Amino acid sequence: MAETGEIRRAEPADAAAIRTLVDAAYAKWIPLIGRLPTPMRADYAQAVLHHRFDLLHVREDLDASEDLAALIETTQEGDHLLVVNVAVHPAFQGRGYGVRLLSLAETIAASAGLPRIRLYTNKKYTANLRLYASLGYRVEREAPYDGPGRTLDDDITVHMVKAIGATPPHPA
Asked: Parallel, antiparallel, or unpaired for β 116-122 and 80-88?
């Protein structure tokens, strides 16, 4: 099956599709952390007005319609680009789309003259932590999750940072 992918910036009309993708991508984490993951609580109608969203649409063959396969949400905060959310629909996981979008975030940060990228994740998302480490992110600090829905004492947020140009992007 021939697969093509195209990245485009989100518009306000994309908020519902963003919500659908995020809910699908993060649903698997609810039993592990005992609450809704932070991205599942976001108001995407508002977020798309204030943050940059890049959407990866995939057409698996010429006769198929395009599907929203993955997204990255970023915002500039002072001297760094914050990756607020990177999500890949479960039907498209394992194809390198998340890595592709994280590489795009590096390009965005470099174009803006920002020396680093930051992101955060849950300490229980061990596969994500391994992926981010393999892409050159390092743990900056850990802190108890202090958002809504906290039910577990071991609910820890891991804050990670990557200096731009420090490590070549992981091959997709």
From this structure: parallel
Tokens representing 47 are 């977020």
Task: Say yes or no to pLDDT of 41 above 50.
Answer: yes
CATH of the domain at 99: 3.40.630.30
Written as six digits, the tokens of 107 are 């390009």
Domain count, the chain: 1
* DSSP 8-state symbol, 165: T
Evaluate whether 118 touches 140 at the Cβ level (below 8 Å).
Answer: yes
Half-sphere exposure of 23 (CA within 13 A, CB side): 9
10-31 pLDDT tens trace: 999 999 999 999 999 999 999 9
Q: How many C-beta neighbours within 10 Å does residue 118 have?
A: 20
